[in-house]
Protein: thioredoxin-dependent peroxiredoxin
Amino acid sequence: MAIAIDSPVPDFSAPATGGDFNLAAYKGKHLVIYFYPKDNTPGCTTQGQGFRDANEAFAAANTVIVGVSRDSLKTHENFKAKQGFPFELISDKDESVCGLFDVIKLKKLYGKEYLGIDRSTFLIDKAGVLRQEWRGVKVPGHVDEVLAAAQALNKA
Structure:
């Protein structure tokens, strides 16, 4: 069962660039976790660049950004370095984090169906409670919307 709005997010650990990610280590800070289908693809690159470019504004709102896809740590490290991302990327090869947030959906490409990540973003408050979610995200304007929510949460 997926996590519900206004419910605590269960602690989890996963391999990430910069070492293992542990949710509990981020208590006291707001956290944006964004799920994207694949490193080095146009939409995912644009989305990551948006979060990169707004990173200082998120930091000013006491908010940390983390990206998640099923790509390997090696691919993540290359993607992060190439794009200059100042945030970590979680490698979720076993889909445990994707399952926790229920972002694996049936998709279609060129008439073929497959299971893939539904581009989604989650805003968790400093107490570890899910406060907002965006599913089926369209990249243009999305980062600004998430930033506004993080800023509002920080003022609350």
